[in-house]
Amino acid sequence: MDRSVTSWAWRVAKEELSVPLPRRWAHSQGVAARAAGLEGVLGADADLLTASAVLHDVGYAPRLVVTGFHPLDGARFLKEEHGADARLTRLVANHSFALLEADERGLRQVLAAEFPLLAEPLLVDALVYCDMTTTPYGAPTTAQERVTEILSRYGANSLVGRFIRRAAPEIFAAVERVEAARAAQPR
User: Fold this and answer.
1) Distance separating alpha carbons of residues 85 and 69, to the nearest angstrom
2) Which of 34, 123, 161, 174 is the most exposed place for a label (fewest CB within 10 A)?
3) Pairwise CA distance, residues 41 & 44, whole Å
4) Residue 115, SS3?
5) Tens digits of per-residue pLDDT, 100-141?
């Protein structure tokens, strides 16, 4: 990946989200800002992380909704309309433990078949960290506060509430791993 992919990702995300979903666009910008802070941890994959961070919620764009499951809709859009890199589309499709939500929606096999999870744990964890430590308005937060916010917004017994309760231990563990990797970086 290079900076041109990151520039492209920003253009696509802004085009799809900024007008119809300004709050989602603010969140995506905040997630990408968090990604920029992980450059030292990810090295050559820093641009890929930033591109996937700004695009991770593109599937919420009203014109892209097909299944109603934004990770799958977004990844399909990026692959089919833009011929996006497979690693990028797989990160978008699987961000923040999407397989668990896909399971709740009856889409786990579809998601796993079309966009297998990357076998790059630090990169996968880094996107979880960026997404789950950013508020809906794009400000930094803790993973615990983010999970609480999601539960209060959707309700504990909603589909998203069930998913986030299942995913919370994995989210917290991923955030801890990224924070440990950041702490291990020379200053």
Assistant:
1) 20
2) 161
3) 9
4) coil
5) 999 999 999 999 999 999 999 999 999 999 999 999 999 999
The one-character DSSP state at 158 is S
CB 167 within 8 A of CB 131: no
Percent of the chain with pLDDT over 90: 96
Q: What is the rounded distance in angstroms from the CA atom of residue 95 to the CA atom of residue 105?
A: 16
Burial of 165 (0-12, 13-18, 19+ CB in 10 A): middle
Give bridge partners of residue 140 from the DSSP assignment: 134
pTM for the structure as a whole: 0.96
Q: How far is CA 104 from the centre of its chain?
A: 18
Question: Which one-letter amino acid corresponds to residue 98?
Answer: A
Question: Among 100, 12, 20, 19, which Cα is nearest to 56's?
Answer: 12
Q: At which residue do the structure tokens 């950013």 appear?
A: 134
CA 36 vs CA 1, 81, 127: distances in Å: 14, 26, 11
The span from the CA of 90 to the CA of 67, in Å, is 17
DSSP 3-state assignment of 167? helix
Residues 78 and 56 sit within 8 Å (Cβ to Cβ): no
